[in-house]
Amino acid sequence: AHLPEHIRAKVHNHPCFSEDAHHHYARMHVAVAPACNIQCHYCNRKYDCSNESRPGVVSELLTPEQAMAKTLAVAAEIPQMTVLGIAGPGDPLANPERTLATFRELSAKAPDIKLCVSTNGLALPELVDEICQHNIDHVTITINCVDPEIGAKIYPWIFWNNRRVRGVKAARILIEQQQKGLEMLTERGVLVKVNSVLIPGVNDEHLKEVSRVVKAKGAFLHNVMPLIAEPEHGTFYGLMGQRGPSNDELQALQDECAGDMAMMRHCRQCRADAVGMLGEDRGAEFTNEKVAAMD
Ligand code: SF4
Ligand code: SF4
């Protein structure tokens, strides 16, 4: 990714954003957030959220206390661990108590670890100020569209003000919240990465427009991820028969968007409980049971 100098300085020890750093620094995710406030057609609720993670894997759910214990255990074992993210297994901001409690604890007890969070954006504007009180390095928003007509094909409903809202109306609210959250974060100087799930025939043509819009609003990195439609992971909510993109299609789109902004090409869609260097997952060494036994 060709990042501007001032951003490069901020992310030099972040394994996800610096090609260099990903050989030297490690990251971990803690899965503290089970609930979600929207429905994506491509989501299978049994598995991790695709805001950030590879869908089709199940992460062990942690309480904020367990997340804290796990983080300290990992930090003792893997000193290169610089970044901790909350990426699911649902939407972290649809579980504000659990996510914020985890951030509070970590900023107090492990102030050197940078924090990040990924979200679909629906609850972002109301939580921006609180998130920014912690040691937040960056926020990832999954933005699959900026057009509600396309959004209605991706999101059957959202849960908004205690009611289920459907169709174009729902997509319009979600898009407005995402864009507002993005603007609020960049105004406050927080780095924002945008993830988009490439869904052939649904938003493939449209993602260039998404890239243009989010760049104009200050997002520093766009990460186009392939829809992973693997039948062995169960029936997707509403995308029966929907295929994922080929490698060529993914790369072609990344190239087209690259004219507009820095593209991320080495995201591994790590599990919501991944631990270690990118491309490696030592999560199995730090299960609740094992961490409890370490005390
Ligand atoms: Fe599933 Fe979408 Fe919610 Fe993530 S944001 S848990 S993919 S419905
Ligand atoms: Fe980094 Fe992508 Fe893995 Fe998140 S999912 S930790 S951005 S490589």
TrEMBL record:
Its cofactor is [4Fe-4S] cluster. The keyword Metal-binding applies. This is FeMo cofactor biosynthesis protein NifB. Belongs to the radical SAM superfamily. NifB family. Pathway: Cofactor biosynthesis; Fe-Mo cofactor biosynthesis. Keywords: 4Fe-4S, Iron, Iron-sulfur, Lyase, Metal-binding, Nitrogen fixation, S-adenosyl-L-methionine. It comes from the Bacteria. Involved in the biosynthesis of the iron-molybdenum cofactor (FeMo-co or M-cluster) found in the dinitrogenase enzyme of the nitrogenase complex in nitrogen-fixing microorganisms. NifB catalyzes the crucial step of radical SAM-dependent carbide insertion that occurs concomitant with the insertion of a 9th sulfur and the rearrangement/coupling of two [4Fe-4S] clusters into a [8Fe-9S-C] cluster, the precursor to the M-cluster. Residues 22-271 form the Radical SAM core domain.
